[in-house]
Specification:
2 copies of one chain form a homodimer. With 324 residues, chain A is α/β, with parallel strands linked by helices. Chain A folds into 2 domains: 8-53 and 154-312, Rossmann fold (3-Layer(aba) Sandwich); 56-147, Rossmann fold, CATH 3.40.50. The first copy, chain A, contains 13 helices and 10 strands. In chain A, the strands form 2 sheets. Chain A has a 6-stranded mixed sheet. Chain A is globular, with a radius of gyration of 18 Å. The interface between A and B is medium-sized, with 23 and 23 residues.
Chain lengths: 324, 324
């Protein structure tokens, strides 16, 4: 189970490091969802985590570990206009160290101001992926900053894995967990820790249409070699086509081969179900996992798989422009 | 502390009766809210209660108590197109007994279908308050139904009081609780149980503008004698001007005299804060209590009152037409 650089021990150490600073997020249930699916669903509310997504777990673990081991770190840098950027900004503030977040100048003002709100310094760049990497690398070199990437990083993965420890303490009888996947940090961390606690638990990945994750899991080959691209989906938290160099082999080993590929309308309906029936605000990426939980595909699976965990990965959605 | 017909013992019995059927709702916190107020706020998520509001607690307690004491009850009736109607429909289904809910024929289809969805029979009537009472009474007489009113009923009040037992177990150090008030069933129940557990806890009521609740608490006289009327407010869960015959004396004795009277815009801003920062879907009545928690009025109060409970009373809001 232990991977080079990240195993269950690292997850337990991560939990010790971060648990005083993060929320132990609630698990909620919905009898309507149970009725529709004929199973028992348990929704882990990482949408209610600090900064509105699970990303704080991994970012804070990485930041605090650097601080433990190096007394002279001048700060952190990453490139992300989304949840990881906010999380790293917040985590750096917790650690009392500066943070720089590289975002394309054309990113929405609301995202920029959220990152600034957590005390980070915004550095604007051009709109190509390569511009971000270049700007980030330059900052890293010039200011000797520690670069914390959004998913392909052992300490980030270990931090995300802390979800499993909490979740299986809250619901020990989970038979399976449904996890939305973008780069794979969340699902790798959850898989490593959950399988260590409960070896026969099943880990299912949820994606928008077109990611070809199932092919990747069956062949062990990262999907979409070549330049990183985005899927055309409303679920911006999981629009990345490629999984990581570290995360892909972990998932190939630990995740089920069947992937839940959700249509756009199903993702929106999943979001709406969470708002209307469960009274939680979730972003579209989390809507995808609700949709997977309510899908015919799950209904057709082994009926002995009764208790299903569903990760509501984030709640950062523009409530002025909901997709219905 | 014990009132004729409803004291702490009745609340404890209610909890025994209903706890297997309802959610023990989560308590969530928000560091942004704490930062803004300089206090520690704890939000009790009754919006995530069965049927989307606290009303299930009181309705189920009343229904189960009837079932315990009478083996021949042919069913229940109430008049409410709102949360109490849904709650009684749901509670009757739990008890395996028929339920009739009287609603004005012009009530929104979405509310009617929610009540039908819980298995109750809808009985339509005219649009005047008197029409509702007449239709309800007629049904009650003809079918020998048990009438369960929305708030002015000992067992309903005892059921709502179960919130305090849970809440003070989850957060034993609460110094005060902010509660939106309509007829006063929720606040009476919470006040009776909370003061029994922790005599020096302060109970604050939250209303829309124009209810004149403070005058009522200072004089002990029900506000707005005369025919029942509605306030002109977005917070439809708390638009009733009058508190009850049973609830008014309880609140006059147990609630603080200072009432939080919130403006419409503050109520909307409170709702929005809950959606955006706390990632929960709440209705406007709950938005009023969030607004009270964030208000200058609370900020100006005794700084030794540190831990403040806030009741998010319900989450039944039309997410297709949010007020922003």
């Amino acid at each position: 189970m232990a991977k080079d650089g990240v195993g269950f021990n690292e997850v337990l150490k991560a939990l010790q490091r971060i648990s005083n600073f993060i929320h132990k997020t609630p698990v909620i249930t919905s009898s309507e969802a149970n009725l529709r699916t004929g199973r028992k669903l348990f929704f882990k509310c990482e949408n209610q985590q600090k900064t509105g997504s699970f990303k704080t777990r991994g970012a804070l673990n990485a930041v605090l570990k650097v601080k433990e081991t190096s007394s002279s770190c001048p700060g952190f840098v990453t490139h992300s206009s989304g949840n990881h950027g906010q999380a790293l900004a917040w985590a750096s503030r917790v650690a009392g160290l500066p943070c720089y977040v590289v975002v394309p100048s054309m990113a929405p003002e609301v995202k920029k101001s959220a990152i600034r709100g957590y005390g980070a310094q915004l550095v604007e760049c051009g709109h190509l992926p390569q511009d971000r990497y270049d700007t980030c690398e330059q900052l890293q070199r010039e200011k000797k900053l520690e670069f914390i990437p959004p998913y392909d990083h052992f300490d980030v993965i270990a931090g995300q894995g802390t979800i499993s420890v909490e979740f299986l303490e809250q619901v020990p009888d989970l038979d399976a967990i449904l996890i939305p996947i973008s780069g794979g940090g969340l699902s790798s961390g959850i898989a490593i820790a959950a399988k260590a606690i409960k070896p026969n638990i099943k880990i299912f990945l949820v994606t928008p249409k077109g990611k070809k994750m199932e092919e990747c899991l069956r062949t062990g080959k990262r999907p979409w070699d070549g330049p990183p691209q985005y899927l055309n989906t409303i679920a911006d938290g999981i629009r990345l086509q490629q999984t990581g160099y570290i995360t892909t082999p972990i998932l190939t080993e630990l995740a089920e081969k069947e992937v839940f590929e959700m249509e756009e309308q199903e993702i929106i309906d999943g979001m709406k179900f969470a708002f209307e029936r469960m009274k939680v605000v979730i972003e579209a990426a989390a809507g995808a996992s609700v949709a997977a939980a309510l899908s015919d595909k799950l209904r057709a699976m082994d009926p002995l798989m009764v208790n299903i965990g569903v990760i509501l990965c984030g709640g950062n959605v523009d409530i002025e422009h909901l997709p219905w």
